[in-house]
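On clarity, I found the account of how folds are encoded harder to follow than it need be. What matters is that the chain and its backbone geometry are given together, residue for residue. The format is easy to grasp once an entry is in front of the reader. For illustration, here is how one protein appears when written out as sequence plus structure tokens.
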Amino acid sequence: NFNTVSSIKVGVCVCVCVCVCVTSSATRTPLNNVGVQRRSKSYRLSYRSCLGTAASRLGLTPALTARRLNTSRRALKPHGVAEKVDPEQLALLVKTEWQLSYVTPLHQFRHTQLKSYSRRLAAFIAAGKQQGLAVAVENPQTTFRVSFSLVEGMTESADDAETVLIQIHARPSFAGQDEPQRPAWSGWLTCVNGNPDYLRSLPKDFTCLPLFGSSGAEGLGALVKSWFQQSFDCCFGPLEVSHTSLQWLMALWTNCHTEASIQHLKMIWTLPAVPPLEVTYTVNPEDAWELWRSVRKQKENRGGGGEEEENCIDIEEVADFVQGLKSHFYRHFRLDLSAGSLNQVSTALGSAKHSGRMKISNSRYMTTTLTLLTESALLKMPI
């Protein structure tokens, strides 16, 4: 039996103890072999046209939305990201909770022009401030400094474009000259193990950095997105972390427990009721690991083959793991979590919410997590 702690919130809190607590600069921009004659006035048209080859290879047609995540993926393994990425940049990426969005390919974006982009975005924010667009963000007299920088070492394939980090620092005009500017907003664009068929199908003037994370003042974030849309003919959209993706993260993180303790496996579910029933379900890490190990052994007993298969996790194993957790909860509370939706998962390696908020807490395992999120961002794009 698991040593679990679960809580159910239903407006008024009631406590019951039954072993469980219940309460109611110069770097590469990947080039492609497909040419483009001119920039279309509508990004969506250009995106549809460049999808021609990729759509045929993936068995898709324009406007078809019935696309799914991969049903098998490599297990999380420690990557030497800390040795490849600048420590200050890595610390920012790891310690921050990010709001995720997807971004369609950027037209005529160049990694060699980041200094120019810094000046142009700073001027755009200054103009927006004069028009009153950023007054809610900071004092109207605030001065801003914008910096674009490369995060080298994040790419996993030759088709991936280098990650770009954007930081906005602010200092009120009444502050002393010696007072340093403070971070007001940060964001990044990345592509980690993007679909090679799709990336190679893009015309050479397009750069694909589909996953966007932002943290800080929402007003500044809106200005940054507006500037990107005007400058690179792209569009942004919210990226929720789907029920399936949350389950994948649970399994991938639990699979790392023997190498880096997950400390806990916490889930938040919402069950249909009036008012909605929120269930917080926390599982002891050793119990979660034992369940996961038993699921993996079942695969081996079914004839799971060599080393390649041992390094891969398939969707059936994820489903069996989650079903085991649900069954245990049902035995205790007679509540079927299958009737509800999974809204949040967290371990010591990271946390993710259905709303699109994500935090990676351990850089050694961030590559596979970002691969999953990149895949989700590409699938969320309109085609």
User: Anything to note?
Assistant: Residues 242-354 form one domain. The radius of gyration is 23 Å. The chain has two domains: 43-240+373-380, 242-354.
